[in-house]
Design a protein that fits this description.
The complex is a heterotrimer. Chain A is mainly alpha-helical. Chain A contains five helices and no strands. Chain A is elongated, with a radius of gyration of 19 Å. By secondary structure, chain B is mostly helical. Chain B has one domain: Helix Hairpins, CATH 1.10.287.3510. Chain B has five helices and no strands. Chain C has a domain of 76 residues. The longest helix of chain C is centred in the middle third of the chain and has 22 residues. Chain C has seven helices and no strands. By secondary structure, chain C is mostly helical. Classes of the chains: A mainly alpha, B mainly alpha, C mainly alpha. Chains A and C meet through helix 2, helix 4 and helix 5 of A and helix 3, helix 6 and helix 7 of C.
């Protein structure tokens, strides 16, 4: 479980940067081009998955421990709720209360880019959590042989 | 009409896999196929012949765009539906792995027999 | 264009049948992945690039999760199959369902001519109201944000359920 060969590791290290950059692009430009929070988050999870495949199971958990992942997940959910509730300051639930700006600009459309960022964080981190749960928590031995006890 | 029937055929194949297969992985595959069929049907309902994607590009007339674009509403609902489908598949696979760990088999009738 | 769409749809149906009928579990998982990728191409044909991106990405992740469940088994082949009574029942039900669906589809708006009563409103006034150019995002995050909130909650709960089922600590 030490990961793959040197070639795979080197290429994975370089490519993961671009994958995460691409996911940030997909999230941030979600109101101008196709994309948005959901696909951006899944691409983020896939980038971390590539690291996990190439370097073994331990490296992603060292970079993003369980506690911090759970904090980020709750941060995404609460941020989306906060945007929804802040609509009350100007009127009603989910009101797009920020200034709208000009179309085709990056900073436009009020709360939409913010919502996209929070949804992207939430989807990405929760899918990362389930992938780690699928690969790390258990080794899935058949019932005959007992797994070695780990703390 | 004909694309709708294709989507219905996929839905029925998925249901067939859920009902008539004993292997748990095959049942998960049936659930996935059913999801694909429903998403495909929703998007097919919103398609307009010769339509353009519902994304405005620079210098496009708004009235002409509204008369030519495909329906954005089922697309927006399908985005959420696809991601929910991923969560459902993850949950099902987690349950399948737990069952395999407990009973050592993926066969449904075998699990029923072992349970007694 | 139309012919290509029908060819892709037929290919997807064949892929589904192979995924359900084949005996090797690994091949079944791979063919379901092929069906998902084809579905993404079909979405591109139907003028939905947003959905195509989501589908191709989600399909990759779904394939990884399903492979995780399939590999590392001692034996990935199925030998036993169900008795013929259940198969006959489901085939009769499928026939009846297909006939009823055919009659119901006659009342739907025909393929390529959607109704779009609410969507026309969104398309005409969405730009002035939200200044977002991508109308899918503006429906998703502004007009119908309640649905997105509910979806985020459902995803949260299902992931929570998966982790609670899988984790070792805290049981026993």
């Amino acid at each position: 479980m030490k990961g793959m060969s040197l070639i795979v590791r080197t290429i994975a290290r370089v490519v993961t940067t671009f994958i995460i950059l691409y996911s940030a692009y997909i999230v941030v430009y979600g109101h101008i081009t196709p994309g948005g929070g959901f696909p951006g988050g899944v691409i983020l999870a896939l980038g971390i998955m590539l690291l996990m495949l190439a370097f073994g199971k331990d490296l992603p958990l060292r970079k993003l421990p369980e506690g911090r992942a759970s904090v980020l997940d709750c941060l995404g959910a609460l941020g989306f709720w906060a945007i929804a509730l802040l609509g009350f300051t100007a009127g009603y639930f989910f009101l797009n209360f920020l200034g709208k700006g000009e179309p085709f600009r990056l900073v436009s459309a009020g709360t939409m880019p913010l919502s996209n960022i929070f949804i992207g964080i939430k989807v990405g981190v929760s899918l990362f959590a389930v992938l780690t749960a699928l690969s790390v928590y258990r080794r899935f031995y058949p019932p005959g042989e007992e797994p070695p006890e780990e703390d | 009409m004909i694309p709708y029937l294709f989507a219905t055929a996929m839905l029925l194949i998925g249901l067939y896999a859920i009902v008539a297969r004993r292997n748990l992985i095959k049942i998960v595959i049936g659930v996935a196929i059913t999801e694909y069929a429903v998403n495909l049907f929703l998007i097919l309902l919103g398609y307009r012949a010769g339509g353009i994607p519902p994304i405005l590009s620079k210098g496009m007339d708004l009235n002409k765009f509204a008369a030519n674009s495909v329906d954005p509403l089922p697309q927006a609902l399908t985005v959420t539906s696809i991601v929910i489908g991923l969560g459902v598949i993850a949950l099902l696979v987690a349950l399948v792995l737990r069952l395999y760990e407990k009973y050592g088999t993926l066969d449904e009738s075998e699990i029923k027999r072992l349970k007694g | 264009m139309e012919v290509l769409l029908y060819a892709l749809l037929g290919f997807m149906v064949v892929g589904c049948i192979i995924a359900v009928e084949i005996k090797d579990l690994l091949s079944a998982v791979v063919s379901v992945g092929i069906v998902g990728i084809c579905l993404s191409v079909v979405f591109l044909f139907l003028g939905a690039p947003d959905i195509a991106i989501v589908q191709v990405v989600v399909e990759t992740l779904c394939l990884i999760i399903l492979l995780r469940a399939t590999v590392q088994r001692d034996d990935t082949t199925i030998y036993k199959y169900i008795e013929s009574f259940a198969v006959a029942t489901i085939l009769i039900f499928s026939g009846v369902f297909m006939v009823l669906a055919y009659r119901a589809f006659k009342d739907l708006p025909s393929f390529g001519h959607p109704l779009m009563t609410v969507s026309q409103e969104y398309l005409r006034e969405g730009l002035a109201k939200t200044k977002a150019v991508n109308f899918v995002t503006s429906v998703l995050l502004d007009f119908r944000a309640y649905d997105t909130l509910g979806e985020a909650t459902v995803l949260f709960v299902s992931i929570l359920g998966a982790i609670a089922v899988l984790r070792r600590r805290g049981r026993r």
